[in-house]
Design brief:
The protein has ten helices and seven strands. It has 274 residues and is of the alpha/beta class.
């Protein structure tokens, strides 16, 4: 018996097969420590260079009960360590936007930490390019505004020893990951890829976002100055706030309680606007 014509046509269309095969699998990308199908808001969290989705696991218990935390696991990170990390920003952003559009029900907020903030910003712009519903707000942490590039020498092309030394200066002299030689060998390709996304970034011209932006920085973070944090104001026509918390670049770890409180305050303020 012959197959139905439509099914036969699909099987003979190599372009369709290639498209379906290249679509990202949302189950690999999204981790929800406390699933909540009835949530009124979803906080989509993007980690820092070399970070895994689990760095946000603690935060799920600190958010309001009607907020579901959805952490992103990038290729090459965490449970996806066996995959090649992505080294180009545009394909990464396009795949992430596909995943969010398929699996995250609005309203949602993007929270990006360090290089994750840059990825979150470009993902919000990608939703604008597509003309579809995007984030209701953008939260950025430990990151200067995207039109301000780093003045420090780039790290991603340095030798192993120089790269580790540069990462120690960034993260602090005593860092659990960087003090473990075997773990460093495993993570260096991922760290190089993530740092390269940031250090080779060139912002394309475009209109500012129309959603609110809330920026968070560490009081002792020498990589992100207060003016660099405030400069995010230029990238939205909506509300803007900037909050400085105690700690360095990784205040996500050192000031967990205060960071959770600051996020909750912004979420409650956003609730009044939605």
């Amino acid at each position: 018996m012959r197959e139905p014509q439509e099914r036969t046509g699909q099987a003979r269309d190599p372009g369709r097969r290639a498209h379906l095969a290249s679509r990202p699998d949302p189950r690999k990308w999204i981790q929800c420590p406390r699933p909540n199908p009835d949530a009124s808001l979803r906080l989509v969290c993007l980690p820092y260079s070399g970070g895994r989705a689990s760095v946000f696991k603690w935060l799920a218990a600190e958010l309001p009960g009607d907020v579901e935390l959805c952490a992103i696991e990038f290729p090459g990170h965490g449970r996806r360590l066996g995959e090649a990390p992505m080294t180009r920003l545009r394909p990464l952003v396009e795949q992430l936007a596909d995943v969010i559009a398929e699996r995250i029900r609005p309203p949602f907020v993007l929270l990006g930490y360090s290089v994750g903030a840059l990825i979150a910003f470009e993902t919000a712009r990608e939703f604008i390019r597509r003309g579809g519903p995007g984030p209701n707000a953008l939260f950025v942490a430990a990151a200067r505004a995207p039109h301000l590039r780093s003045t420090r020498p780039p790290l991603h092309e340095l030798s192993r020893a120089e790269l580790v030394e540069g990462l120690h200066r960034l993260a602090g002299r005593h860092n659990e990951l960087l003090d473990n030689e075997e773990l460093v060998d495993v993570m260096l390709p991922v760290l190089r890829a993530d740092l390269g996304l940031d250090e080779t970034y060139a912002r394309e011209p475009g209109s500012p976002l129309d959603c609110p932006i809330a920026a968070f920085g560490g009081s002792e973070d020498w990589t992100v100055s207060r003016p660099g944090l405030e400069a995010w104001r230029e990238h939205t026509t909506g509300d803007f706030s900037a909050t400085t918390l105690p700690g360095g670049h990784f205040f996500l770890d050192s000031s967990q309680g205060l960071f959770a409180e600051a996020l909750t305050a912004e979420i409650k303020r956003l609730d009044e606007m939605i």
